[in-house]
Write a structure and sequence with these properties.
The chain has 440 residues and is α/β, with parallel strands linked by helices. The chain folds into 2 domains: 370 residues, Spore Coat Polysaccharide Biosynthesis Protein SpsA, Chain A, CATH 3.90.550.10; 60 residues, no CATH class. Helices cover 28% and strands 22% of the residues. Strands 2-22-12-17-11-3-4-5 form an 8-stranded mixed β-sheet, sandwiched between helices. The protein has a 3-stranded antiparallel β-sheet with strand order 1-13-14, with no helix packed on it. Helix 3 packs across helix 8. The relative contact order is 0.16. The structure holds uridine 5'-triphosphate (UTP). The site of uridine 5'-triphosphate has 19 residues, from loops.
């Protein structure tokens, strides 16, 4: 870390010292040790398929659950938690991912889509629904400015709590840290699971307690179809089916090779296993003619605030072998290795699931709630997401009797409706033709 110390000016020395002081060396040493056992990792994870409750299951009284959820929302028990600290490497967008224009007709940003859903629900249920946004050190300021410049999309500024996630140094194959610059140790964001310690550190948990919040709707920033405030889901979470600690949404996997985490049972509790950690045999395994591991995670969960508070610090670290540009200690030049040269560490939010005494999974419809924007092109890109958003809008309108052409471009604003039932309340056109572009 101090290799270039003598070359640094006073300001750079102070900057480097401040960064070094912020590093948790006990944790770092522990992580270095964990890289030494990496070769011993077994290739097959022992697991069995996860149980789930489908929205199509007619033995469940979904109307009653929706009423329970609505009552909880009206009493001000629900807040929204968005993780938006990711680097969005695959998308390649220059700003924070939340500022990416995502909707098919009006090009609303991902942040606006979430903000407007919160606004709609706050008005519908006549209640404040606070929004907690995790940023990264890199995108924190720009996220704040973006929201303020856009008047928080109609939300009250005092109901938005923005906090940055932590960072963690990477370790090279000799157990050393790397220098990103001569006066900067290379660190990376500590993963979406860093949200637990960041909520603690930032005072967000106390803020939630002062509002008597009981549950958080956790959503990622990059799925504009997700129902951010979903009374039915909340009703299930608060019902006898669950311990009310964690409830998660899944969709049926589109095929064995879909790159989503999968719900499974391990050691008696519900877990999510990443697709890269499953063997080909596991991803293709069949049960009753269907994929055995069919429950794909869409990274939407309800967490009770008390559960989050108690879970702080308990999440494991995941290691990945990466190519990290750095200052080469022998030549003193900046190098960008073609091959992985170091280990990065991250925490994942889904590791909270096995900590719950009874975590449950609700299967929702993919076409209703899943249109992620991950890549610049191809699968899970803005193009595929916009098509799915448009398809859902058309399906909602058709369910209300509107004659809509398959080729029409339709967007339904989150401030207009959150469901087909809401659409029924508004005045609708009788017909939308193939060349029409409509925003409702
Ligand atoms: P992804 O795992 O898809 O990562 O994040 P990403 O950063 O958006 O994109 P890539 O992998 O670099 O291309 C899923 C969600 O978790 C958040 C992201 O902002 C996104 O909402 N996230 C991810 C964090 O908040 N912090 C992290 O350290 C990682």
């Amino acid at each position: 870390m101090l290799q270039y110390w003598d070359e640094l000016d006073t300001q750079s020395k102070a900057k480097l010292l401040k960064q070094i002081e912020s590093i948790d060396f006990d944790l770092f040493n522990h992580l270095v040790e964990s890289t030494r056992c990496i070769e011993n990792k077994t290739s097959e994870i022992e697991m069995s398929p996860s149980p789930f409750i489908s929205l199509e299951d007619s033995s469940v009284d979904w109307n009653a659950l929706t009423r329970t959820g609505e009552a909880m929302i009206r009493q001000g028990k629900l807040g929204v938690l968005t993780v938006a600290g990711g680097q969005g490497t695959r998308l390649g967008w220059s700003g924070p991912k939340g500022t990416f224009p995502a909707t098919p007709v009006t090009g609303k940003s991902l942040f606006q889509v979430i903000a407007e859903q919160i606004l709609f629900a706050s008005q519908k249920y006549d209640v404040k629904i606070p929004w907690y946004i995790m940023t990264s050190i890199e995108n924190d300021q720009i996220t704040r400015s973006f929201l303020l410049d856009n008047n928080c999309f109609g939300l009250d500024r005092t109901d938005i709590f923005i906090f940055p996630q932590g960072v963690i140094p990477a370790v090279d194959e000799n157990g050393k840290m790397l220098l990103a610059e001569k006066d900067v140790v290379f660190t990376n964001p500590d993963g979406h699971g860093g949200v637990i310690s960041a909520l603690n550190r930032s005072g967000a948990l106390e803020e939630m307690a002062s509002r008597s919040l009981e549950h958080l709707s956790y959503v990622q920033v990059d799925n504009p179809l997700i129902k951010v405030v979903d009374p039915t889901f909340l009703g299930l979470h608060c019902s006898d089916h669950s311990s009310g600690e964690v409830t998660s949404k899944c969709v049926t996997k589109s095929g064995p090779d879909e790159r989503v985490g999968v719900f499974c049972k391990r050691g008696g509790s519900i877990n999510i296993v990443e697709y890269i950690d499953m063997t080909v045999e596991q991803t293709h395994e069949l049960k009753d003619g269907q994929l055995a591991y069919c429950c794909g995670s869409i990274a939407a969960h309800l967490f009770s605030t008390s559960f989050i508070k108690n879970a702080a610090g308990d999440l494991p670290w995941h290691i990945s072998h990466k190519s990290i540009p750095h200052f080469d200690s022998t030549t003193g030049n900046k190098v960008s290795p073609a091959e992985p040269n170091a280990y990065k560490f991250e925490r994942f939010v889904f590791d909270l699931l096995p900590l719950a005494s009874n975590s449950i999974v609700m299967q929702t419809k993919r076409e209703e709630e899943f249109a992620p924007i991950k890549n610049a092109q191809g699968i899970d890109s803005a193009q595929t997401s916009m098509k799915l958003q448009c398809d859902r809008a058309i399906a909602w309108l058709r369910a209300c009797g509107v004659d809509v052409s398959e080729e029409a471009m339709v967007e339904i604003s989150p401030t207009t409706a959150a469901s087909i039932e809401d659409i029924r309340e508004i005045e609708l056109p009788t017909e939308i033709g193939s060349d029409e572009v409509v925003s409702l």
